[in-house]
Write a structure and sequence with these properties.
The protein is mostly helical and about 150 residues long. The protein has 6 helices and no strands. It is elongated, with a radius of gyration of 51 Å.
Length: about 150
C-alpha cells in the first residue's frame, strides 16, 4: 500500500509539473536564443529561491514559537495549584469580600435610612379673643407676650 501511495504521489507530481511547466524545445534555436532562454530561466530560479528562503524563515520562526509555547505549557503543568476548599460565608461577608472596603456596613439598606419623625403642629387653643384682650392690656400683658416668645 505504501508503494502504491508513493507511485500515486509521483504521478500527481509529474502531471502537475507538465501542466505548469511546458517542455523545452531547444531544436531549431540559435545560440543567441538559447543564451537568452537560459538567462530568463536563471532569473525565474532566483525569484523562486528567494520565495523559498522567505518561506523557510517563516517556518523556522513559527517552529521556534511553537517550541517556546510548548515549554511554557509544560512548565505550567508542573506547577501544583492548591486544592480549593468549599467555604460557607454569609451574604454580608461575600459582598464585603467582593466589594472590599467600599461596603463596611451590613447589607440591610433599610436600617441605614434616616428616620424622620413628623412633628405635629402645635395647635393653639382657640379662645374667645375678647377675654384675652383684657388680660393682655397694659404693661403686664406685654410682659407676658415677651416671656412667651422666648
Amino acid at each position: 500500500m505504501l508503494e502504491k501511495e508513493k507511485e500515486e504521489i509521483k504521478l500527481e507530481r509529474e502531471t502537475s509539473l507538465s501542466e505548469r511547466v511546458p517542455p523545452l524545445q531547444l531544436s531549431g534555436l540559435s545560440m543567441q536564443d538559447i543564451q537568452t532562454l537560459c538567462r530568463e530561466l536563471h532569473l525565474k530560479i532566483d525569484v523562486v529561491d528567494e520565495e523559498r528562503y522567505d518561506i523557510n524563515a517563516k517556518v523556522d520562526k513559527n517552529n521556534k514559537e511553537i517550541e517556546t509555547l510548548s515549554m511554557k505549557i509544560f512548565e505550567m503543568r508542573k506547577m501544583k495549584r492548591p486544592a480549593l476548599k468549599r467555604v460557607n460565608i454569609s451574604a454580608d461577608a461575600m459582598l464585603g469580600a467582593l466589594l472590599g472596603s467600599k461596603l463596611k456596613e451590613s447589607v440591610d439598606f433599610n436600617a441605614n435610612l434616616k428616620t424622620v419623625k413628623k412633628e405635629e403642629e402645635k395647635k393653639e387653643e382657640v379662645t374667645d379673643w375678647r377675654k384675652n384682650v383684657e388680660a393682655m392690656s397694659g404693661m403686664e400683658g406685654r410682659k407676658k407676650l415677651f416671656n412667651a416668645g422666648q
